[in-house]
Amino acid sequence: MRGSQEAFEEISPADFFYRNRDIAGFQNPSRAIYSTVRELVENSLDACESIGVPPDIRIQISEENVQTPEGVGTYRIRVEDNGAGVPREHIPQAFGQILYGSKYRLKQLRGTFGLGGKMSILYAEITTNKPAKIVSSTGGSKIHDYELMIDIQANKPKIIRHRALSNSKRWRGTIVELMTQGDYARAQSKILEYLKQTAIVVPYADITCTDPEGVVHRFERATSTMPKLPTEALPHPQGMNVEGLKRIIAVTKTTTLIDFMTAHFQRVGETTAKRFLAYANMNSRKNPKKLSADEVVQLANAMATFDGFISPDASCLSPLGEKLLEAGIRKQLEPEFVAVVQRKPSSYSGFPFIVEVGLAYGGKIPPTGGVSLYRFANKIPLLFDEASDVSRKVINELVNWRQYKVTPETPAAAFVHIASLKIPYKTVGKEFIADRPEVEREILFGLREAGRRLSVYLSRRIHMEHEKRRLEVFEKYLPQIAAFATKLAKKKTEPDIKPLLKDVAKHGYEDAED
Ligand code: ADP
Ligand code: MG
Q: Global pTM?
């Protein structure tokens, strides 16, 4: 039937995320305050790492009004960093326009879509109707101080106030402050756990969090050494698709397919390009701008199936490295023993990834009736949905822990960090990683190697304990035997048993070395 009453309209990206805030981690006041802290902290960490500065992050959460009986209140959240700062001309959009950002690049960063920090601002605005305050400087002569809101229907920043202050001390960094609704009481343990795990995976950060009660939670840096910064990469042909290819064709200055391949893709030299174009059944002298729609599809499909490309370059990644991961684990959990393994770069669908694992024993690790698990992706702790994560599956189903002398009573913890341009999250919630076979295998091999080292340590430890008990028996009975023997022989002075005990102990250690 024609002339229906349906009304059509368009909604903006901000409006979309306003209506679907649950998919960005803002489904209720408890999760919202957790996500707010997390997103602001992650922006700060990215901003410091982008200029190679060890992060100093100050978080302040204060309660602004009395809580409702359900435990929901209004909180002022302030996060300050010593990062790159935001150039003045980008401040309004960086904080007031959804899907605007500086991280749409082929290198490892925490932020991806130009969404997270702004979701915190959007949620604050729809729950308290107050603007966000942004103070930032890139270290020049001015500090810019903005109060802004997001015009949700237009997806545009609405500047309430702007001042430029003089920056005589050349301060560099960013402060974001907002008033938001939240359920801090319910979120507190997750927020603190998040910070503790961030301190493990970013051991070169100094983080201070003052909670609504005024209690200061300090996470001091264990080192100021930072991992190698990632460099931006060209795309790998295997990760291409039709749309990606069309975009490159639109901007390319090359005039032949062979030049096109070597100029726009990583690790494609002339020989590889020639072989590939022959495989794709394409004329290498053809102008890429003259490809028909079907030929673009043909080229994209050939890229996905050709097996002669060199595997993706991992310099766009910034893994932590064995030393730093160990430093983070030692600082936060003070274990008796740690084994850390960084696997060689691997890849899936044209995207490189590196798996790093740690296995720790004793110290502050509580016995939990199994191996406890700490998961990280691109230096972000993952705290939710552990049961569905690939690392849980590997630990529960694929590693034979008894082989490594780990029993359910052993206080052991596993750490799994995946660094990748494309973390295979299973859902948009970004809380757990899918069991892609390539990733699963790397985690398994890493844990096995760490497991072997742990088992060497544990066998030695078990042996030493056995020896200690043996020695205790001698220590207890030798003096009595000596006294008894002295009496029996009707002698006055007892023989010196110290050399004897020493001898027993020495033999014990010699055995342990075997
Ligand atoms: P994303 O982090 O995914 O890009 P956000 O909405 O969290 O999206 O942030 C948008 C942009 O604002 C970032 O890409 C970055 O350029 C800038 N930005 C946000 N917070 C900071 C900060 N603390 N320091 C420097 N730049 C920041
Ligand atoms: Mg972000």
A: 0.89
